[in-house]
Amino acid sequence: MLLMEEAERIALEEHGSWKISVISGIGTRNYYRKLGYELDGPYMSKIIGPEP
């Protein structure tokens, strides 16, 4: 399991979050895109559950 997969699980299951965002430098954005994240202002974000 990737570290980001565990972070997504914790955010969803333990904190009830529906979206996760990370601060990402320009050089790491492609890495996050491969994991399903999209550019969201200065962050890379991913919807991980239904909106409340």
TrEMBL record:
A GO term, aspect molecular function: 4 iron, 4 sulfur cluster binding
Keywords from the UniProt entry: 4Fe-4S, Iron, Iron-sulfur, Metal-binding, S-adenosyl-L-methionine
InterPro entries (alphabetical): Acyl_CoA_acyltransferase, ELP3
Source organism, top-level taxon: Eukaryota
Entry GO CC: cytoplasm; elongator holoenzyme complex; nucleus
Gene Ontology BP terms: tRNA wobble base 5-methoxycarbonylmethyl-2-thiouridinylation
Protein name: N-acetyltransferase domain-containing protein
Organism of this sequence: Rotaria magnacalcarata
